[in-house]
């Protein structure tokens, strides 16, 4: 339960602050930042299983 609460708080703080950061530090408007982050998130979803498979095959990196 604590992990879920902490994760919800972290996401709740990150999303609006990162949107504000991108809107203020780039030439993009808020109307462009929202769909841009949504598209980037959608494109990153297939990368997660691929990265997991690669780590399973190679193993963890040595220190």
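^ structure tokens above, recovered residues below v
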């Amino acid at each position: 339960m604590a992990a879920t609460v902490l994760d919800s708080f972290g996401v709740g703080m990150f999303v609006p602050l990162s949107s504000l950061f991108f809107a203020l530090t780039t030439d993009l408007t808020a109307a462009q930042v929202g769909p841009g982050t949504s598209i980037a998130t959608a494109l990153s979803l297939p990368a997660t299983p691929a990265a997991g498979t690669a780590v399973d095959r190679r193993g963890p990196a040595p220190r």
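DSSP finds three helices and no strands in the chain.
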